[in-house]
Backbone:
């Protein structure tokens, strides 16, 4: 009985697993002649089925070996593309998780009322602002409309909710400060010395800078 030939799909899946599991390597080849150069390229082609070349802007272009037929070349393209997509997705997911953890850590330093809608809006604002400072200039024209679209609100509703969140925090901090029985609060003060208000744009900028510093700190990345 002649064993059945594996399907193209199973071959492609096997190639993908091998590509993902293959150890990352850095190779430097010094050649002094065109023949030697071609021999190195052919060796890589014979081993991997493709050859990546990086241009001056950091983009990688792949030369795919089709000498063994187009089905083989298609498997190489599929496995490489799938690996790159998976790596990009994993990297983006890890970055998002780290950012969210940093924002949560920073916000928990202060006595915010987490039940207020403004708290959720502020959280989302920091996710955008940490990676794009320009959204704060001006905040009413760039950041607020972006958050309004995200939550299905009007721009003035976003502004009002965030302003109320900061006003509520001021009230809580000033109340704690005036209460002589509270010798030491578990929260840090966001109000600067002598201030009684928290201007929205300036405060969001300060918080985003804290998140940024935390993300780049050794203790956070350990």
Residues:
């Amino acid at each position: 009985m002649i064993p059945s030939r594996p399907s193209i799909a199973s071959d492609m899946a096997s190639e993908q697993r091998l590509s993902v599991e293959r150890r990352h390597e850095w190779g430097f080849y010094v050649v002094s002649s065109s023949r030697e150069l071609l021999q190195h390229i052919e060796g890589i082609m014979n081993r991997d089925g493709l050859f990546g070349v990086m241009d001056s802007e950091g983009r990688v272009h792949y030369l795919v070996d089709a000498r063994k037929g187009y089905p083989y070349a298609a498997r190489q393209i599929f496995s490489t593309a799938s690996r790159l997509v998976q790596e990009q997705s994993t990297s983006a997911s890890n970055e998002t998780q780290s950012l969210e953890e940093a924002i949560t850590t920073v916000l928990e330093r202060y006595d915010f009322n987490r039940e207020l809608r403004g708290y959720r809006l502020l959280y989302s604002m920091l996710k955008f602002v940490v990676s794009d400072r320009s959204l704060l200039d001006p905040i009413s024209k760039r950041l607020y409309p972006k958050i309004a679209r995200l939550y299905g609100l009007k721009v003035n509703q976003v502004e009002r909710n965030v302003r109320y969140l900061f006003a509520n925090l001021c009230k809580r901090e000033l109340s704690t400060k005036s209460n002589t029985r509270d010798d030491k609060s578990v929260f840090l003060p966001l109000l600067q010395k002598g201030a009684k208000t928290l201007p929205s744009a300036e405060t969001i900028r300060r918080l985003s800078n804290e998140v940024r510093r935390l993300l780049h700190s050794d203790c956070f990345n350990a």
About this structure: The chain has a mean pLDDT of 79.
